[in-house]
């Protein structure tokens, strides 16, 4: 004899409705009521949370101070590089003009003076 499977779907067992609640907050510390609740559940938890928030703030401040120092150093180095570039550019142009004046005094062809003046360009 073969058994036949019933094609009738079985309905799931009825379930009771569930209530889910959640709470969130912004910032490193929960509101005072939640801190008090944590302290009742785990003695010392509130102090540990406060210590953790203070340590996080110190860490964040040290990271921001390092970033600020890096930015200030980059500005300082850029200013130094700009000044060095201007000094070297001035020296190159001054030496070209000096060589052009020397070539005129020495009696060289006018194209030599023009070459010395346009050399740094």
Overview of the structural elements:
The protein has 121 residues and is an all-alpha fold. The protein has one domain. Helix content is 67%, strand content 0%. The protein contains 3 helices and no strands. The chain is elongated. The model has no long low-confidence stretch (mean pLDDT 87).
Kindly list the characteristics that best describe this protein.
121 residues, mainly alpha, 3 helices
Short description:
By secondary structure, the protein is mostly helical.
* Classification by helices and strands: mainly alpha
The portion of residues forming beta strands comes to under 5%
The radius of gyration computed from the alpha-carbon positions, rounded to a whole number of angstroms, is: 40 Å
Portion in helices: 55-70%
Q: Number of folding domains?
A: 1
Oligomer: single chain
Largest sheet properties:
none
Explain the layout of strands and helices.
Layout: H1 32-41, H2 45-106, H3 110-118
Helix pairs in contact: 1-2, 2-3
């Amino acid at each position: 004899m073969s058994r036949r499977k019933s094609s009738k779907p079985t309905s799931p067992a009825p379930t009771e409705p569930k209530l889910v609640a959640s709470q969130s907050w912004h910032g490193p510390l929960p509101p005072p009521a939640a801190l008090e609740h944590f302290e009742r559940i785990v003695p010392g938890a509130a102090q540990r949370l406060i210590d953790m928030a203070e340590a996080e703030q110190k860490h964040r401040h040290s990271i921001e101070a390092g970033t600020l120092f890096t930015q200030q150093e980059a500005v300082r180095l850029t200013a130094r590089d700009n000044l060095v570039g201007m000094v070297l550019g001035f020296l190159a142009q001054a030496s070209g003009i000096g060589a052009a004046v020397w070539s005129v005094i020495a009696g060289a062809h006018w194209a030599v003076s023009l070459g010395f003046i346009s050399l740094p360009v």
